[in-house]
Specification:
The chain is an alpha+beta fold. It has helices spanning 29-41, 48-59, 67-74, 78-87, 107-111, 114-125, 167-177, 182-187, and strands at residues 99-104, 131-132, 138-143, 155-157, 160-162. Strands 2-3-1-4-5 form a five-stranded mixed beta sheet, with helices on one face. It binds FE2/S2 (inorganic) cluster.
Length: 192
Amino acid sequence: MRIGKAKPDLASTAGARDSSASATSSCTPAAATAARIAAAHRDTPGALLPILHAVQDELGCIPPDAVEPIAQALNLSRAEVHGVITFYPHFRQVPAGRRVVAVCQAESCQAMGSEVLSSHIRARLGCDFHATAADGSVTLEPAYCLGLCAMSPAITIDGHPYARVTPDRFDQLMQQADTLSTEADAQRPVQQ
Ligand code: FES
């Protein structure tokens, strides 16, 4: 399952390792958290992705001041770490809304009405893709195949998949979502 398209690496030309940078960032709570997590994973092969996941799980995003301690722990440049963060749409540099809605934009879902569904969802939530509603209630993301092609169009709400979603059903799902616990979400099968 892949959420979103790969984003451009905005830092790819930002230069090589900069060990002098960000002396002050190491003092922030986010930097301290990143440093602790990076130290715990430092000797793990391919540690960067596990570290980024762990930082995002704990902080809700990977803020800019978390980059330097991760780079230092792994002997990478800040540009290299930033490049990985910006390449994978899963990683956020700012916190998401309280809910995250992802709407599949791939071929099967397009053929089954995801464009109309997407228009409805954008209007309903009051924000576009890659954005968060002004009240912070929800972040809207595109997805590129959720593995539910035979039951298109498909979406996820907080990571839980829903199939054959119509505009009306989306409205119902959002109402229901507020009453469902995270634990229950994790155990429910795909709803068709
Ligand atoms: S194309 Fe939408 S779930 Fe596969």
